[in-house]
Specification:
The protein has one domain. The chain is 11% helix and 43% strand. Strands 1, 2, 3, 4, 5, 6, 7, 11, 12 and 15 form a 10-stranded mixed sheet that branches. It has a 5-stranded antiparallel sheet with strand order 8-9-10-13-14, with no helix packed on it.
């Protein structure tokens, strides 16, 4: 059951400002709409799981938390995996990102009450400087814009709770407001996003 992956996570959620869940402090994690829905893209750059090569795959995790805080759990979630992945790759990616093989996602999985069946879909990625768009078939699009300061350096937060838990490289999250749209008839609601962040991660278990 050994595995390791490196990649990039592009988070977007329905919160109007920076998602309070990043802080990892329950008293601060009140969702500003009373609920929170997210579409999170993962780009796997390197990795293996039980000898199955995982590099080059992209997937998206959609979550719907009824609130009022993340720690109240009871979420509905679904994975969307690029249809270019092989059956073995899909099996291993699903197990890792549903938390069944340990690692950071096993922590988040404790908050999920219902996993909908994984979907396979064409996933297109477009990049233009600090702008990134990940389109997942007819389900939606994760759109992110990385922020830089006046000196051209990334605007970041370091060592906040969820950046540590998600094992981001240097425990660092780059602020990246989002304009994602998501609509899956099997999920509790369709939604648009404003909050967002991007981080590189290195996971193993």
């Amino acid at each position: 059951m050994t595995w390791n992956i490196k990649g990039e996570m592009i988070e977007s959620c329905s919160c109007n400002m920076l998602c309070p869940c990043w802080f990892g402090v329950k008293d601060l994690m009140v969702m500003d709409q009373g609920w929170c829905a997210s579409a999170i893209a993962f780009r796997v750059r390197e990795g293996f799981s039980d000898s199955v090569k995982l590099a080059g795959n992209t997937l998206v995790l959609s979550n719907d938390f009824p609130g009022p805080t993340l720690f109240d759990g009871n979420a509905t979630a679904r994975l969307y995996i690029d249809k270019g992945a092989t059956a073995d790759q899909r099996r291993e990616l699903e197990a890792i990102f549903q938390g069944r093989k340990g690692g950071p996602m096993a922590v988040l999985a404790t908050l999920v009450a219902k996993w909908l069946p994984t979907q396979t879909s064409k996933i297109d990625i477009q990049e233009n400087g600090d702008d990134l768009a990940v389109t997942v078939g007819n389900f939606g699009q994760v759109k992110s814009h990385k922020l830089n300061n006046e000196a051209g350096r990334p605007m970041t937060m370091q060592s906040v709770g969820f950046a540590v838990m998600l094992q981001f490289d240097n425990e660092m999250l780059q602020l990246a407001p989002s304009t994602s749209r998501w609509s899956d008839p099997d999920m509790p609601r369709s939604f648009q996003t404003k909050s967002g962040g991007v981080g590189s991660f290195t996971w193993a278990a």
